[in-house]
Amino acid sequence: MSKKQGRGELAIRDFTAGILDIIDDNLIPEGAARDSNNFISRTIGKLSKRKGYKADHATPLSATKIQGLYPYYNNAGVRRVIVANAGKIYAYNRETFTELATGRADTTEQFISCIIDGKDSIIVFNGVDRPCVWDGESATAIPLENYRKVQDDKLNTVDYLEYTAERGDWKAHGVIVTSNGEVLSETDYTLDAVAGKVTFPTARINEVSKEYAVGWLSYTKFTTQHPFKPESAANIIVYDKDGNTVSAGLYNIIYDDGDRGAVVFKTSQATKAPLQISYQWTDVIKADYQYKAGGTEIEEEMKSMRLPAMYNGRVFVSSTISDRTSQIWFSEPNEPENWPPINFWEVKPGDGDMITKLVAFMGQLIVFKRRSIHVFQGKSFNDFRLEEIEPRVGCVGANAVAIHSMRMYFIGEEGLYEFNGLRAKNLVAEKIPRLWEKVNLGHIDKAAVTVWNDLVLAALPVGDTATENNTVLVYDTRTGAFWKWSNMPISCYCVTSDSTSQVLLSGHNANGIVCQQDTGDTDLGVDIVATWEPKAVDLGSPERTKKVKRVFVEEAQGTKASAAITLAPNYAATPTALTFVGSESHVLMYRVPAAVRKSRYVVLKITHSKGAYELRGIMFPYKAKRKPKVRRSGA
Fold it and tell me: How far apart, in whole angstroms, are the C-alpha atoms of residue 290 and residue 214?
């Protein structure tokens, strides 16, 4: 090889392929990195340091992690973030926290939006405490009740002023009272929902004067339009056709003869007919209402509810009761406070697994177990059906799912999956299996996933000693690239909005801080250390020795602090820092120390530790030596 043939230069300007560790370092394609931390590239020619996060409020709520975040909105323009921490539920307006509930278990809280009593409400579930409801207006949240519906119930009365049902503890909203089948206005009566009682201002007694009776059975039985008022014989007067009063001793009174009143004679009254009757009758008062279902068993069932999802107008949940962890329970349609005992469905019982997440997706309810996926469909028992579509793949936890652009992304035991409603694809297996091996599967149930700016962000516990999420695995849905961000203590995510734009919030997993993500250039005031290592460069000829004397780095204009560049010849355990020589515009030149200029593999590393940073490209001239002369052995 001539000197001319042995000289050249290598430029790296495409960083968009992200991390790739499934193949050997020197075989990684252009645009990919053997390792990267706290960098991302979404445009060719730009490798950018990730933005940081800051506390969204001045004082931590407690010394324990945030257990849940959820965005709340209503038609009145109220916007809040619902925050769970240290056994309390707060409504947070990005300035102050209002306590809604206290005394709850310090565990993961899940939320669902629904309409209750005509108000935009949320229900909070944790599988330990009774769910609670907040309507966006009340000062505090109240327990979720389980009501049973009663329709057309005839109320009892003694004085025809007060009418009571056999059961009290009515739900005040939605009571319908009828009189003789006609719906009454709420102004016509006073309702005592606790006692299950309706009170009228005047007695519901009606007077009828000389109503023509209907003759039956050879004119021995005569009936009226309405039943007689009980025990009102003194007010029942029978008249013959001439208007004469008929003696009461000639007939017997039937007060209620199938919704009619009747008088029965021993002999025919044909000669006296038609008869007229004056009498009193009372309104039939009925009510449609819901009453609280109580008892120890119901209380325990309500407390065990968790993993809520809204599907076809019903709230679906799972249970923490040991022999029901493979069941889904569901409310009546559009009645989040009505949970009949027959409303449940078994999901692959006896498989030794439990339900880990419920998600409404593309007109179906996706039921995740730890190691399987099922699809539940239908609107009623007439068309409910369940199908298992993945027998070996499942979701690890309550916060480990996010939906984006007709795709669902979730964390399973073997990686980050993309799900289209029919099939789950492991995105990790084809690109970063070695990185996934570092995830602590013993605590992966705490994983949290969201989508932000077309990036799937999966907070994971990485490292053998990690018991909480400390690293975010980033998947770019546009490019298919993976990136890794460290120092990310995230327990949960929440995408909300202020008056002008959307905001990504996260819960801190070590103290009671709500953080705003993707802002600034520090993590809670701590500088972000970012590293990027391209493929090990062998120029397609690893057997040749290359000589590199200078490395040129192009940075974005206005860079305040440049990156440090190191070189590890032939994968040396201790990399050598390159010496900054000078710059022209925003292109910097580094000198390679003489001791490390020659190597078969050129292994570079970029490190940046203060402020924002953007790398535009790297270029280095090289000289390749002749192929080594290998002599035959004497064997």
Answer: 40
